[in-house]
Amino acid sequence: MKKFILNSFLVFIFIFISLTLILSTIGIETDRFNNLISKKINQYKQGINLEFSTIKFKIDIKETSLFLETIKPKIVYEETIVSAKHIKAYIDFISLLRSEPKITKINFALEELDVQKIKKLSIKLKPSNLSSFIQNKIEQGLIKTEIEIYLDSNNSLENFIVKGTVSNLKTKIIKNIVLNKTSFKFFADKTDILIKKIFGEIDTMQIKDGDLKVKLSPEITFESNFNSNIKLDTKSLDNLNLLKDLDFTKNLIYLEADLNNSLFVNFDKTYKVKEYNYKSSGNIRNANFNLKKPLKSPLFENQISEISIFNSDIKTSFNSKKNNMFISGKYSLNKGSLLNFDLKNTSKKDELNLDFNVEYDWPLELEIINYNKQKDKIAKISGKLKKKKNN
User: Fold this and answer.
1) What pTM was computed for the model?
2) Using CA atoms, how far apart are residues 311 and 276, in angstroms rounded to an integer?
């Protein structure tokens, strides 16, 4: 009797292990659940039709869950065919015993899609502002994605998660500001999109190792942190609308810098910038300002037509209400000697406040205090200036 029980137990263990190996690898082919999968996917998004040949019953050992899998199916939505690597439908084991199978999760692993196909698929996407953003702002790109749909106890949509990678993306962020040659990893659900490992270009600005959080409701907002290598000339500066309103950029003709940046942008329902806040810190290797109106003064031997900055540390904060900048390093006037300086600039609307400490080697004469400085002798000058409109 003991031998029989032992043999029976060993046979049971053998069958269980064999069945587990089969279910976790090749699976068992079945057509019992074909209609169930099609029905549940259509319940998530009406108008989706599936084209597949076989379904296999398998087990996911990591999640200790049973699932149904079909390989290389075709998904048809809005007259657009999307090829998938697989579709998996995870089934509640207890419901299976009751002959009332309930699907808890559906997983799609899609083949690479291009932007034009994504635009067709996103026409009826919710929320509508995300659909509009895809239609109007994204021009080029490839996406590899995996979608997970979670169903509640009533087999109704509870949540979804989309994750994957994007490459060769081209998108308009703001008018004349286009993000090119961009790649990143992303994760999204009903309310948020999280993006990591962003690499791309905005004109001659290179973006490295960035991250981005996008809130989709009630309005779209961007929050981003990224490192940048910047080389700007007059042509590229003309394209950067966010910089046009900043006083210090109006005479800027060249900039080369390495910066750590953070950016917040809030769009209204028409995708017009409602609010923005940009902060950065880093080093300016080279910047050149060619003054449209040269500075003239009885104090100066010559008028100042060009100011250059080299190897200078900078901190900036630009937003829709107020702009701040602190910079410290080396400068030269009209391609002259390199001298030390630091400068703090605060501006809002028609008001500008400037605090500075500079070394100065041009001749200087101040009769009011009987002060005379010869050329090439270095003076240290500190000052505070306030400009309101033209005063």
Assistant:
1) 0.66
2) 28
